[in-house]
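User: Show me a protein chain along with its predicted structure.
Assistant: Here is one chain, sequence first, then structure tokens.
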Amino acid sequence: MTAVAFITTSKGRLHHIRQTLPLIVAQSPAEIMVVDYACPQQTGDWVEAHYGPVKVLRVSDDPGFCVSSARNIGALETSSPWLLFIDADVEVAPGLVDWVRKFAAPNSYYVPVPSVGQRADRELDGTVLVERKAFERIGGRRRPSSC
């Protein structure tokens, strides 16, 4: 069975996390990581209070927000062979983890594509499913020094 870790980040996105995290939890992935990137709304505290099994990682040493750094930091704290980076406002459809388990192929990565005849949804641009090995080959296992 292919295990997948969902990694999402939050800085000022608690309102989105409240809507999307239940959908992620319902997928029953191997791991869920929420990176609280100095969120003024203390997203990490809310997640821990409502979703105990979800891992929370807090970044407090950067007053800005660097999504690539946040994602790399989150990935460093997971161990699943597949990583799904997903923005806080993206609602996942039921069956996504089942699809990954059935169809994710080694040496591949996946991004959302529109259905035939539909336009691309720019809101999904931050969503990517990647094999951990490939992520590590391109240097994803280290914390970036800057954005």
